[in-house]
Amino acid sequence: MRTILYLLRHAATANNLAHPALLQGRRQNPPLHSVGEMQARVTAEFLAVRPLDAVYSSPMLRALQTAQILAAPHKIKPVAVQSLIECDIGDWEGQSWEEIKENEPGLYDRFMANPAVQGYKGGENFQQVLDRTRGAIEEIITRHAGKAVLVVSHHIVNRVYLADLLGLGAAKARKFSLDNCSISLVVNEKGKTGVQVLNSNFHLQGVA
């Protein structure tokens, strides 16, 4: 029995498109930027011909808006899952990495050295994010055994889960990045779950 999980990072918000990009966790809840809406529509067209049994989403507005656009061609209502909410990045919300490095170099260095232990200032670390999200995703895979499902979540949530499946562990989740509205393909077959595609964005060619 083969179960397919399309794991997506939400489409872009203004914070994602800023130069430099601004950190965005759960304390702010911005909507999609118009560019993000276009990303979601293009992704919806790509997924429209692929069967989906269900669509799940983080409860954050940017993820729900993305999920609603993607689910529409399938006439499915997305289900919000609290455990899929983005990492709490604490006092660093709304700042750029450049600002954080300049203002708090010691904490910045400790975080970069091992984010699975040293969390965001006043927020979660990567291991805490993995501990609360892994079970929720595994439950979704089990519930829809033999089917295909879509999960729309966030950069950190998706990275720590994928890093764990790849054998890197939460500490190494920053070794790769995921684009807005990129698709990572996770497959469960014969009791084993693995990553078949990581950060596929070819469907977004021509979209900023």
From TrEMBL:
Listed SMART domains: PGAM (SM00855)
GO cellular component labels: cytoplasm
Signal peptide location: none
A Pfam cross-reference name: His_Phos_1
Superkingdom classification of source: Bacteria
UniProt GO molecular function: phosphatase activity
UniProt cross-references to PANTHER family, sorted A to Z: BROAD-SPECIFICITY PHOSPHATASE YOR283W-RELATED (PTHR48100), HISTIDINE PHOSPHATASE FAMILY PROTEIN-RELATED (PTHR48100:SF1)
Protein's UniProt name: Histidine phosphatase family protein
Organism: Telmatocola sphagniphila
Taxon lineage: Bacteria, Pseudomonadati, Planctomycetota, Planctomycetia, Gemmatales
